Amino acid sequence: MAFAANGALEARTADVELGRYLAAECLTCHRAPPGAIPNIFGLAEATFAEVIKAYRSNALANPVMHSIAGRLKDDEIEALAAYFAITKRP
Ligand code: HEC
Fold first, then answer.
1. Residues 19, 82: contact at Cβ < 8 Å?
2. Which residue segments constitute the domains of the chain, with CATH numbers given?
3. Residue 4: pLDDT above 80?
4. 76: exposed, middle or buried (Cβ count in 10 Å: 0-12, 13-18, 19+)
5. How many CA within 13 A on the CB side of residue 2?
6. Are 22 and 73 in contact (CB under 8 A)?
7. Which of 45, 67, 79, 86 could disulfide-pair with 18, CB 3.0 to 4.6 Å?
8. How far apart are CA 79 and CA 49, in angstroms?
9. What is the mean pLDDT of the chain?
10. Ligand 1: lining residues by beta carbon, under 6 Å
11. How many CA atoms lie within 13 A of 58 on its CB side?
């Protein structure tokens, strides 16, 4: 049991670290005070992933986010969601 729990925690940490790495690109725009560019810090993980996938599929039409989301794989989206959910806007 303890091993399983540790494994889950390690996987989680890896997710957040990958998310932090991938987030560098996002900060160019999303570090700005929320206005035309919405705040994405502290968004619920599930919502975050849903929105990015909607941009990727163009269900939510936005040319900028469509091109960015189009380059992200599912596991990268999960990692970004995990990172932003627990991170405050700098
Ligand atoms: C070139 C600027 C730019 C970059 C870089 C960028 N975004 Fe965005 N993002 C936007 C804009 C503009 C919107 C608002 C689009 C709209 O009105 O639908 C947005 C919207 C979003 C939303 C929806 C927020 C909400 O509450 O509606 C999420 C989530 C998001 N971006 C995540 C990301 C992630 C993750 C990255 C990095 C992989 C990223 N963005 C990189 C400009 C950018």
1. yes
2. 2-85 (1.10.760.10)
3. no
4. middle
5. 0
6. no
7. 79
8. 9
9. 93
10. 22, 25-26, 28-30, 37-38, 40, 48, 51-52, 62, 64-65, 68, 80
11. 2
